[in-house]
Amino acid sequence: MNKPVQAYGLKARKGGERVEGCGNLKGLVMERRPTVFLIAILAFVLLIPSPVQGLCINAEACGIILGVWASMLTVPICLVLFAFAIWPKTRPWLEFLAVLPGFMAIVTGYLMVFRVARFDLIWVPLIHAALMIAMIGVGRLKGKT
């Protein structure tokens, strides 16, 4: 009764305490490229708003939902782009990449503030504008700061 199980290619340590890898699933366990998992996560994130489409009862509601969704997608991307600030040679790229939050400030400003006439949502485009200003400012830094 104390013998380790050898069926299905399972291997056991001495004493039969812990079962290690399965020979049949060896090629499937986290040996794929990370892009497969990144694409799966992005597809999951893109499909989250599907139930929210039921809230699109008119153009104003759809504008607010689209602006919030676009902000949820682009603000983390912009924060990740700040990794270019680590190396002095890549800091100038931030000035060019500041186009993304600048464009999103215009789009969210139109969709959520002017088109809908909801001036209480002005903070959403202001977040994008602040990210753009920060990216341009960090991109213009010189030296080893």
Brief sketch in words of this structure:
With 145 residues, the protein is an all-alpha fold.
Description of the molecule:
The protein is mainly α. It folds into two domains: 44 residues, no CATH class; 89 residues. Helix 2 packs antiparallel against helix 4 and helix 4 runs antiparallel to helix 5.
What are its keywords?
mainly alpha, single chain, flat, 53% helix, 5 helices, 145 residues
Give the radius of gyration.
24 Å
Count up the domains: 2
The number of strands is: 0
Oligomeric state of the chains? single chain
- Tell me, briefly, the overall form: flat
Helix content: 40-55%
Mean pLDDT: 76
Q: Counting H and I runs of at least 4 residues, what is the number of helices?
A: 5
What does the largest sheet look like?
Answer: none
Distance between the termini: 66 Å
Strand-residue proportion:
under 5%
Low-confidence stretches: 25-29
Structural class: mainly alpha
List the helices and strands and how they pair.
Elements: H1 34-47, H2 59-81, H3 91-97, H4 99-114, H5 123-139
